[in-house]
Specification:
Belongs to the short-chain dehydrogenases/reductases (SDR) family. It is a single chain. By secondary structure, this protein is of the alpha/beta class. The chain contains eight helices and seven strands; from the N terminus they run E-H-E-H-E-H-E-H-E-H-H-E-H-H-E. Strands 3-2-1-4-5-6-7 form a seven-stranded parallel β-sheet, sandwiched between helices. The relative contact order is 0.14.
């Protein structure tokens, strides 16, 4: 159990919390009364709308903008949260970007951008925010990965590589932080009905759904439920795991 405060009085930071899976995660924690920090980069209005929905549940909410490719901006975000009393007990590294296309067409700039947001951002946020968790001997770090980080995907080599790195990062950091009472796990969803699927037309989506034993895409709330479970104090013996809610697509 937390030596800091009861679970419902803890604070969760959700990166990329202005839409999709991140917004669903923020709202799930808000329904339980946790303090919620919604991180975003450019989507100010979307972040505010998620914040309003969270506050409707009585949660204390803060929105904050930062470029997760920049250590300086992440450290500035930490300072803002500390000044407002919103330092996270639970860190959800959800922010990410996708990339579709043949590896032969990937540019150096593509590589740098996808790796920076998906992998470097996870590294930087974990490093910056785990310091307080180590001091208090309690914390939860939950990384949102992807099924493609486990199995790989044709025409998504760059994205698959980044998420595979997130999975390895998760397993290694879990071992490092376990003596400090901190768990590190990853949620690796299959196909989820979010804006990230906007590059596929209706026929493509139908074809993908037909390959999934469940016969459909997940909805963001289903992913949020798993993230919430991993954040619970009583989930403290689940550590270093890559859990993939994918409707039976990958077993």
């Amino acid at each position: 159990m937390s030596a800091v405060r009861p679970f419902t009085r803890q604070t969760v930071l959700v990166t990329g919390g202005s839409r999709g899976i991140g917004a669903a995660i923020a709202q799930r924690f808000a329904t339980l009364g946790l303090n919620v920090v919604i991180h975003y980069l450019h989507s100010h209005e979307s972040a505010n709308e998620v914040a309003r929905r969270c506050m409707n549940h009585g949660a204390k909410v803060m929105t904050v903008s930062a470029d997760l490719k920049s250590r300086e901006q992440i450290e500035a975000m930490r300072d803002k949260l500390e000044a407002r009393g919103f330092m996270p007990d639970v860190l959800v590294n959800n922010a990410g970007i996708s990339h579709y296309g043949l590896l032969s067409d990937v540019t150096d700039e593509d590589w740098e951008e996808v790796m920076a947001v998906n992998l470097k951002g996870t590294f930087l946020c974990s490093q910056v925010f785990m310091e307080r968790m180590v001091r208090q001997k309690y914390g939860r770090i939950i990384n949102v990965s992807s099924i493609w980080g486990i199995s790989g995907a044709s025409c998504e080599v760059l994205y698959s590589t980044a998420k595979g790195g997130v999975n390895s990062f998760t397993k290694a950091l879990a071992k490092e932080l376990a003596p400090s009472g901190i768990t590190v796990n990853a949620v690796a969803p299959g196909a989820v009905d979010t804006d990230m699927m906007s590059g596929f037309d209706a026929a493509d989506k139908e074809a993908i759904a037909s390959e999934i034993p469940a016969g459909r895409f997940a909805v963001p709330d289903e992913i949020a439920s798993l993230v919430y479970f991993l954040a619970l104090p009583e989930s403290g013996y689940i550590n270093g795991q890559i859990i993939s809610p994918n409707g039976g697509w990958l077993t």
